[in-house]
Write a structure and sequence with these properties.
DNA-binding; about 55% helix; transcription regulation; globular; Response regulator
Length: about 220
């Protein structure tokens, strides 16, 4: 029995952008755009009424922006969707704030259709979409202030958990981490879960942010 299509909500204040995204995504048999929002407030309402699997969230919108909308969705939804931030610029500080708020990753608006479709599928299955060099750039100012000392949780990581977090910060998926370390998928999941707990992170993206801001990447990488 085939699975139902992934349900997607598009949040962007430009109608033409939403239309272009809908055309690309609805062309895929396993994806379905179930709603649109022109600002953050509409995005929050759409999530509550439509229960999507993934939200494509623009960061700069009138009224409630994508960052506040992400925070409200993740804090006020029992089973929140995965949120993929869509932005124009890699070095947009709004992107970093959205990742800290719990977005699963970010995608540039200039991405081609295959990248867009792949990103939606990736975050829907629980992985994070991160570009290590871009995250490193975005984190630089924050990490410089936050990492005067190393965060206390770093000392609580086992050697293998430290290896896993280092590879997570490098943008590797669970499958890639398993191949690199020579361990099975369930073992990787166990280590990732331990990393999330020790860093106080909701998901992989927040763990990577914690790795930069806590001095782990700078000191260990």
């Amino acid at each position: 029995m085939s699975r139902p299509p992934l349900r997607i909500v598009l949040a962007d204040d430009e109608r033409m952008v939403r239309t272009a995204l809908r055309v690309i995504l609805d062309a895929e048999p396993d994806l379905e755009v179930v709603g649109e929002a022109a600002d953050g407030a509409e995005a929050v309402t759409a999530v509550r009424t439509l229960a999507p699997d993934v939200v494509l969230m623009d960061v700069r919108m009138p009224g409630i922006d994508g960052i506040r909308a992400t925070e409200r969705i993740l804090a006020g939804t029992a089973e929140p969707p995965r949120i993929l931030v869509v932005t124009t610029f890699e070095n947009d500080a709004y992107v970093y704030d959205a990742l800290r708020a719990g977005a699963a990753g970010f995608l540039l608006k200039r991405a081609d259709p295959d990248e867009l479709v792949g990103a939606v599928r990736l975050v829907a299955r629980g992985d994070s979409l991160l570009f290590p060099e871009a995250v490193r750039t975005l984190a630089a100012n924050h990490a410089a202030a936050a990492a005067a000392g190393t965060a206390a949780w770093v000392a609580r990581l086992t050697d293998r958990e430290a290896d896993v977090l280092r590879l997570m910060a490098g943008g590797l998926s669970n499958a890639e981490i398993g191949a690199r370390l020579g361990v099975g998928p369930q073992t990787v999941k166990t280590h990732v879960a331990a990393v999330l707990a020790k860093t106080g992170s909701r998901d992989r993206t927040q763990a990577v942010i914690a790795a930069y801001e806590g001095g782990f990447v700078m000191r260990k990488a």
